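Deliverable D4.2, example record:
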Amino acid sequence: MTQIIDAYLGLAALRQAGYRSTATAVAELVDNSIEASADDIEIIALTHQTIVNTRSSNQVKQIAVLDNGLGMTQEILGKCLSLGWGTRLETRAGLGRFGFGLKGASISQARVVEVYSWISKDDVYMAYMDLEEIKSNKLQDLKDITPAKLPQSILDNFSDKLGESGTLVVWDELDQIDLRRAETLLRRINKDLCRIYRHFLDNDDAYGEKRKVSLHMLNLDTGKLEESSPLFA
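Output generated by the structure prediction step:
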């Protein structure tokens, strides 16, 4: 028997597929949050100070999307990073249905993706995919989900945004993002997402029920929020 595809080589090839920008990749996660009935979605650039050409620059280290949606059962969370698997494959309704959005968007930008989800705030589980681990250990299967605690930086700064249920996606080892400078990347994301989600940001619910979507810049060196602003249609 010959396997259909090697996991690492397949993932490496798929990293180059389909996303024009970091903003459109982030939009996939926002789609998922909207489909999960979230009405409050936080897009967070986690940054640290780095010297670039002898000058200090606020560089993006991680990108996270936090929502107060329905959350995932342990069964669904355990499959959510499996390519070709999705919860809407049999329907034409909704924003996405081919089982590629979360993982495709994530690996298009980052080498590590962590997905935390909960249906009860005190019962958080995590799934993850680490491309280097898959390559080094020649893995062909995802690791089992595990009980987890949300990252401390999220707990410290977004405790008021944590719903009784919800999901947090964190991208790390960002080797394919458009822009490293945090302020510039957030401006680009803001511009593109305001266009993509204009029907969800205005007061007219004819084309999409209004959601609150906000952009944040969180400095990992200080542990503090440096900037927060809602998207406007």
